[in-house]
Write the structure tokens for this entry.
Amino acid sequence: MKFSRMTNPILIKFIFHEIVASRSSVEICPSIRQLVNHDFVFSDMNPDTARQLFENGGILLVLDCPKEMEFGIDHYSWQIGPQFHGIKMIPPGLHFCYYSERDLSTKQLANRQGFFIRIRQPDEMFVVVRWSPSDNLFQREYLTPDQYETRRSQRYEFDRLLGQYPLDTYRQWLALSSHLQSEFLEKLLPLNGHICSSNVFDLNSTSQSNDFSVPKNLTEAESRLPKMTIQPEYALRLTELSHQDKTHSASDLTHSKLDRTEQLEQILAERFNSNAYGILCELEFSFVIFFLGQVYEGFEQWKRLINLLCSCQRAFCRWPLIYIEFLQIIYFQLKYFVEDEQLFVDIHQQDNYLYKSLENLFANLSAWNTEEKMDETNFDKLIQRADKMKQFLSETYQWTFEDEPDDEKPVVVE
């Protein structure tokens, strides 16, 4: 396993020193974000620096890997060799690992699967997974305190069999995962923690008709198809966003279509204990499992969450800082699609849903009533962030935004 670019050796010392000092598995202090801006050649690293990285970094031990499989962590993946036993020097925090088994006869890769790991001082610096041939996935091996210490003491024996975490991509991973938190991920992940790019069906519950006569119509034909049921332990537990309360009056439903603030508040209360950062966590989670895990449902949920947040006429007054960070999250995510604008076009409506959603948000900001209660300092910051976002979209996609969308302007009758 070979890395061509890594971080300045002296720089790495400070990165890991501050991460370890922070004792945080999720939040990374701002100084670290500034420190990882530099590139360097790993071959220049002296033995003392490498030893400190090895001591302070986490280890993912990957056992019994199938031959020639693809394995990745965060922004980097490899085709592994026979000596691969895992990854070392992993910075504390949450990381997404993913893999695809290779068919040795056709050389084709199977559907991608993945899982999250958390590296945290002092007792979660060593994670062990082992390949299960019967389940075709990696199973986590949970260690007792004694087993953990034994494994940790043996880590130098595995040193030559471990690939180095690609620190030159760490800054990009931080940008995509800054709001991922374990307490929220536990509500979103499948029950078994495994993320699969294709549905895993329960074969025991699959049923089909024994009627082999010619069906009379399409409805009858479809009724005879096997009833495919997804195994519950593999099902993503994403927030349901399409539910409508049937007890609402017509006027309430019309208002809810225009302003979805109440729906957002209800979701935060029911799913995230009224913590608005939970919705940002799900936004990043949905993007990561789509972008790195190749899960299409993640992409669909990402679109739905953006539409929800952009359709709230009052939420940004209550949570201006959340919307500042929301725009920053979208900015970092969209940088990966600067040449693929068609990804944002709805096939059925032939409309750019992302443009429409952001246009709605910008229009709501422009129409904000200054008499409503909100910290003016935070509002000014939000307006500045929105202006920067407009500039980025204009330069990247040549999108322009008006204060009032064309379909909302009054019609002049001559």
